């Protein structure tokens, strides 16, 4: 079972996820950013579901493990579509939404095929292995896509502050997740670090999005060139 | 090998996104001039410098906190410290990077001073409300 720290971070994270939806509603940003809010709502429901299963079956139960990994993949797909919706917003003036949607579906299909190719020789638990593989690969695709989106924001001189902050916070989140994944592979013995780090990383995205919806008005503008580290 | 590559990429991406994110938080305050009160309290008349950061932060902690500012101050403090680490390591071999970190840390100070101004105004309003009740 998770300790007090684990439960505290879990509760905080769930509250922040609910906070994103409340802030978006209050600031009339729910519909314009529907995919982001759907992802947050799904994340909140998954948190509640995980808690219930944890209480009933325990951390080491196969029910919890299955639910954890399957729901994680589902959330990754939701997050992938949230990212795609940010692409659509950035490219909206070019009327390229259809191309973005088509590209997103093709890339998702390609990632799924690649993930299947990696695990298809496994003799047992093929679906479970596929689900875990797909989730990991989608996280990495998400990181690269966020970087591409950030480059597009700079190139197209996107000035909407809220949109810029949503993209950047997503970039920080994906980078932290990818770093965590790599560190876990490089130093598997550092279990304490990997018990503390991922839940904290998970809190960053809802906190940053709640901030962006609550504090940044839709009409706020900035010069993105000022933000670039590499010009 | 692959994990090492992903780690290196993710650290580079993380730095890029984190710095840009912090700059986006600071960006709005850069154009905001410091109020007369803040100038009097802090003694800041010229553009803010990094040396004044700790003092302005101490003054900020003396004012009643506004809940919505808690996260951003923490993040800017982290950014300020990170810039300090960059300056004392990588920037030693790149003078332009040293100038950049100096300017960035100055902007962090300006940001904290702007927040201080907001908190002073908030405290004053709170006091006025209590007096009228």
Protein described:
The complex is a heterodimer of chains A (231) and B (133). Chain A is an all-alpha fold. Chain A has one domain. Chain A has helices spanning 4-26, 34-57, 62-90, 97-119, 126-155, 161-186, 191-215. The longest helix of chain A has 30 residues, at 126-155. Chain A is globular, with a radius of gyration of 18 Å. Chain A starts with a helix and ends in a 16-residue tail after the last helix. Chain B is mainly alpha-helical. In chain B, α3 (53-62) runs parallel beside α5. Chain B contains five helices and no strands. Chain B starts with a helix and ends with a helix. The model of chain B has no long low-confidence stretch (mean pLDDT 86). Chain B is 77% helix and 0% strand. Chain B has one domain. Chains A and B meet through α5, α6 and α7 of A and α1 of B.
Question: What's the helical proportion of residues of chain B?
Answer: over 70%
Percentage of residues in strands of chain A: under 5%
Provide the succession of SSEs of chain B.
HHHHH
User: Mean of residue pLDDT of chain B?
Assistant: 86
**Sheet bearing the most strands of chain B, described?**
none
Oligomer: heterodimer
As a whole number of angstroms, the C-alpha radius of gyration of chain B is 18 Å
Shape of chain A: globular
Biggest pleated-sheet summary of chain A: none
Q: Please tell me the total number of domains of chain A.
A: 1
- By DSSP, the count of extended strands of chain A is 0
Uncertain spans of chain B: none
Number of helices of chain A: 7
Determine the N-to-C terminus distance of chain B. 67 Å
Secondary-structure map:
The complex is a heterodimer of chains A (about 230) and B (about 130).
Chain A: H1 4-26, H2 34-57, H3 62-90, H4 97-119, H5 126-155, H6 161-186, H7 191-215
Helix pairs in contact in A: 1-2, 1-7, 2-3, 3-4, 3-5, 3-6, 4-5, 5-6, 6-7
Chain B: H1 2-30, H2 36-42, H3 53-62, H4 70-88, H5 95-132
Helix pairs in contact in B: 1-4, 3-5, 4-5
Which terms would index this structure?
heterodimer; A: 231 residues; mainly alpha; B: 133 residues; 5 helices; 77% helix; 0% strand
